[in-house]
Request: fold
Amino acid sequence: MLRTVIATTAVLGLAAGCAPDPQTPVKIRALVLSGNGQYVPEEVELKTVDDIVGLSGTVADIHGGARIVYDVQDQALINATTAEAFAAALLKGEGRDVAANYINQDDVLWPADFHTWNMVTAYYNLERAFDYFREVTNIPVADFKKPVKTYYFPEFVLADIQPGPLKDNALYFSAMESFLVLPFDELQRAPLSINAGVITHEYSHRIFNLKAYGGSPFPEALISWSTAGGPNPGANILKSFDEGLADLHAYGATCRSKNGCDTRFLASSFHGPEQGPLADERDLAKTDRCIDDALRDSLRDNSLGQFSGKEYRVGTILASALYQAGEATGQRDILLRSIVAAYSDETTATPGILQLTRRFIGDQSKFTMAVAAGAIITHVTDLRLKEAVCNELMDHLQIPRDQLVGTNNPNLCPPSAAGGTTCPRLGAD
Reply:
């Protein structure tokens, strides 16, 4: 499909690609999801780009041709004593600034080749994610820090997973505080870089890192708890919340698009008999998602390595429960703001997730699902929304009522919250 788009635009034949120097906002064509589920060229504006050829600006700085290798046997990584040294050791090839090519038609820039289409769309989607967190969740501009270096089509090797470079992914890599847009192979219908929901999901991981992890490339609680030996319940909960809330924010961002809210934002990239089920598995609109005994036991008893992959299941249950609460009360955006406010809060009466992990850094078993959920509940101030959130979390995540009601914290669930009846009751944990 993308090659068809590029071939179509080639017939414009107006001028060779050159180095334009337009003023922001820049009118440009990007690939945007249409109402019929296809990605089509659409005129958009880039509002934060400073260098349209190098595609760098206040939101992102796109960089190409890098080689990044994580190998636990790498002596340079073993010897690294700082986060900066570790990031430098990962980068085996620095790559270079990108050079986008355009055709100018009536003061609107059209990408002149495939990679320019892909990079422009990726920058546009990063800008949209930035706008969502700034405008909907009220994060001050200063909190975003410097523009995020975005490695476009790098060779990214995780040596303990496979010897060759990974493909078909987009991710926030906290060890380098960077986004990685990997080459695609199987996902040719809609590579992840052009899927705005996927990019917002990854941007949400950055926000969670900045807020709930204190902006550390190596979050203290996650590292301390996951290397403690034995079960890692606190680390498993953190990873589950990070993944689930990223899906919820990705959904929230789709509500700002011209096509409206999309709980199945993964569907345009993941389709067919092998990939299609993923969109259904992560569809937030499904109302029957329930934690079961086996998943709850894994959350409590597994190490982080053993739990790998299950964080998406727990995260989806969390996200769909919160989705239902927000939609039922008509307070989606208020809930999304409350969730981000819960990531970090130094107020004694309403501590955030960051402050709670620090409180229990010496005993992760005390950072329970109720404690993590309580951070969100305390930041929901509307009584009707708070009641709905409590009911959904009690029901779908099977958080016992006595852990959320009747405590010394008056900001937790109101007495009217009785829990739901969708999910079968589990035995005592």
Q: What stands out?
A: The chain has 16 helices and 14 strands. The first strand starts at residue 26 and ends at 33.
